[in-house]
Amino acid sequence: MINAKFIKSCYDLKSLPKAQSKEIVLCGRSNVGKSSFINTIFGVKNLAKTSSTPGKTRSINFYLVNDKFFVVDLPGLGYAKFSKTDREKWSKNISNYFKSRENIALAFHLIDSRHLPTNIDIDINNILSEFDIPYIVILNKIDKLKRTFWNKAKSDTLNVFSDLSFGDNLFLFSSVSKVGKKEILSILQKLFM
Ligand SMILES: Nc1nc2c(ncn2[C@@H]2O[C@H](COP(=O)(O)OP(=O)(O)OP(=O)(O)O)[C@@H](O)[C@H]2O)c(=O)[nH]1
Ligand SMILES: [Mg+2]
């Protein structure tokens, strides 16, 4: 049984909770499905707030799973309707978060499986690599892609991020069809449960 509860929302890095538990982090472009991923993986419908309008998550949100580890929902990067100042502030916040938080055990970088990785995805990958954060790339919303395109989505991603290996640190996922849920839960189980 998984027990997940909301801990707090932080609007700046000064108010982050004490780093007393390991944490896993959800990052990626705005609207790629980070909050939905949390709800799907932990089986709680509205644990993390989702929205069809991009830019829903505007704070760093902490959840505690099984009283053991934090799950962190980051705001999406690159939402065009935010002011440039806001986008730059959050981009900096997120970079500083990865730089300063020593208890990060794993990051899930969600990428939209329907498109090639964008410049924002490349920026995120650079941040994770720069600060030596172990990460897994999730090709999300795979329910929107016909099966005949699944291999192409994988190989397009591998062409951009050549260090990835499918089934190890690259997975297909969907919060709608639940593809990939079993595999991700098994990774978390090995890490924490
Ligand atoms: N078809 C499909 N839609 C999804 C999936 N995951 C999320 N969505 C939809 O995509 C939209 C955005 O989902 P969120 O989970 O709020 O995305 P987010 O990455 O947290 O967005 P921000 O907080 O704005 O950065 C919502 O309409 C979701 O229902 C998926 O796997 N498949
Ligand atoms: Mg969100």
* Portion in beta strands: 15-25%
The run of helices and strands is EEHEEHEHEHEH
By helix and strand content, what is the structural category?
alpha/beta
CATH architecture: 3-Layer(aba) Sandwich
Number of helices: 5
List each distinct ligand once: guanosine-5'-triphosphate, magnesium ion
Measured between the Cα atoms of the first and last residue, the distance is 10 Å
Q: Main sheet: which strands, in order across?
A: 1-3-4-2-5-6-7
CATH superfamily caption: P-loop containing nucleotide triphosphate hydrolases
Rounded radius of gyration (Å): 16 Å
> At the first level of CATH, what is the class?
Alpha Beta
- Structural domains: how many: 1
- Approximate helicity band: 25-40%
CATH topology: Rossmann fold
Low-confidence stretches at least 5 residues in length (pLDDT < 50)?
Answer: none
3D shape:
globular
